[in-house]
Amino acid sequence: MDADAVPAFLLGGGEMGARIRAHDWSRTSLGPPEGWSAGLKTTLRAALTTRHPIFIFWGEEHLCLYNDAYSASLGPEKHPAILGMPARAAWAEIWSVIGPQIERVMAGGEATWHENQYLPIIRHGGLQEVYWTYSYGPIHDEAAPGGIGGVLVIVSETTAQVRAEREKAAEARHLLSLFDQAPGFLCVLRGPDHVFDLVNAAYRALIGGRDPTGLPVREALPEIEGQGYFELLDRVYRTGQAYVGRGQRVLVERSAGIPAEERFIDFIYQPIRDSDGAVVGILCEGSDVTERRRAEETNARLAAIVASTTDAIIAFAAEDGRILSWNKGAEALFGYAEAEALGGPAGLLVPPDQPDGDPTGVFRRALRGERVHEHETVRVAKSGERIPVTVTASRMHATDGRLIGVAAIFRDMRQRKAAEQRQALLAREVDHRAKNVLAVVQGLVQLTDAREPAAFKRAVAGRIAALARAHTLLAEDRWHGADLRTLLTGELAPFLGERRAELNGPPVALPPGATQPVAMAIHELATNALKYGALSAAAGRLAVSWRLAARADGVPLLRLRWAETGGPPVRGAPERRGFGSRVLDGTLRAQLGGQVSLMWETSGLICEVEVPLEPGTGAAAAGSTPPAL
């Protein structure tokens, strides 16, 4: 087309404008551009001057015209080949879909809308998965049959968007699958009524297979009423502070018509916040630790039996007979310390002339599954003494059924006099240890002041429990001592989780003799704070800080400060000296030689303690009976 003769409606338009001008339209049913209808000219002009993808189907053959923006969606197979081509030939692969849509618009003049329509087209070497959002609208032409000369297609390719949404949906399904398959129980609660939004399989298993989705927690789990969990959820939602529970007991109906079952759970209630920071829900995450708890209790009972028995209980490995465990009874009977015996051979105690020192002996018989009950034989102690014993032995199996060894109980059968002497020696040792414990317990019972039996029981039980916790810490560190922070955390754990108590100080290892007295003092301070002081009020706070110093003679000193604020107003020191004050005196002053200062400030109690940390601190460390508190 001569540049001077280009119609105004075909000026510009980039690459496609030039191609439309250069195309020989006289070879098509459309004819030269000068004779095109006003509707087509106007529509094509708009298409060439916009950057939005535009396509035009014109005439009975639906000849194809399009702009630069649309050409970007075409591959080399179609662009520029389909310019001026009949639509049926240009779009053969999708004609079954778009053909009826075009005819509908041409016949009735009503526009259509198609969102994310799947229309696979041939481009870049193959049939590709392509999605489009488009509308078909009529182009009016008075000369055309029915007054409609063609179809205007305003289109956007949405393939990337569809794939992104598909991947997002797949990722969401994957995350939900992971959520459902998580080994711990999980649920998402929405709103102040704690409506179950998401619940995983482990949570459904915990509550007996029920699906509480969409129900408020009080409706879904009515048997939990009165156990404190609803109130905890309300508090977390109201305050926005997470709650952590460890080994907490819950009664839950796991089968219809069967009484609620006792379970133990570790869990956390974590507030969920919106973009403005407001709490809108709660994530509950945790584990059913019932079996672990029961196994621990069973193991504790068995360990207590093994530890407390005077019989020698020894375990031998199945593969080579080496010694796997060695209790105190074995130490007492045979003279080898545990460290000496562990890993030793099965024949460590067997005299060379005894038949059960070879593969036909007690160990091999028990390993084969034979019943070995009170078999009489002789064993040799570390001292060389030959000791007559009875042996009861049986096989040990792992939880998966594997044979892992033999457990044997050796009972001393020496002459009565030697047995009586040994029994007397053990009795004196037990008497000494028992007096230590009974002296402390006797002091607790005598000085505990409670008018009601229940209150008396709780007070005594709490104080004995504090001693037991300290004892556990000592045992965990093989009686080398106990960590002060761990001791405080064990007593104040609920308030640390609520951020009502704060601990601040360096690592401090309490000597064995100081651990239980310090534990008793901390327990009394915590009990007093919970009953009368800062921890008895919701706004109350407790700050415990400590540091290490040294006396002039070089002995390390622990200086601890216990400061309560925000509790009930304090009107000075109490009129009478309570049990707590006497415990502080009896433990920190009398037993440890420390100093205690009590200051009854208006804002709350302040207690300052100074305790020497000598390795032999305390009466128990010196081997004597501690004084009654």
Class derived from helix and strand content: alpha+beta
Side by side, the strands of the main sheet go: 2-1-7-6-3
According to CATH, what is the topology of the largest domain? Heat Shock Protein 90
The figure for the number of domains is 4
Radius of gyration: 43 Å
CATH class of the largest domain: Alpha Beta
Which superfamily, in CATH terms, is the homologous superfamily of the largest domain?
Answer: Histidine kinase-like ATPase, C-terminal domain
* Beta strand %: 25-35%
The end-to-end distance, rounded to whole angstroms, is 116 Å
What does this structure look like?
The protein is of the alpha+beta class and about 625 residues long. It folds into four domains: about 5-160, PAS domain (Beta-Lactamase), CATH 3.30.450.20; about 180-295, PAS domain (Beta-Lactamase, 2-Layer Sandwich), CATH 3.30.450; about 310-415, PAS domain (Beta-Lactamase); about 445-610, Heat Shock Protein 90. Helix content is about 35%, strand content about 25%. It contains 18 helices and 24 strands. The strands form six sheets. It has a five-stranded antiparallel sheet with strand order 2-1-7-6-3, with helices on both faces. Strands 9-8-12-11-10 form a five-stranded antiparallel sheet, with helices on both faces. It has a five-stranded antiparallel sheet with strand order 14-13-17-16-15. A hairpin with a 5-residue loop joins strand 11 and strand 12. Helix 15 packs across helix 16 (about 485-495). The longest helix has about 30 residues, at about 415-445.
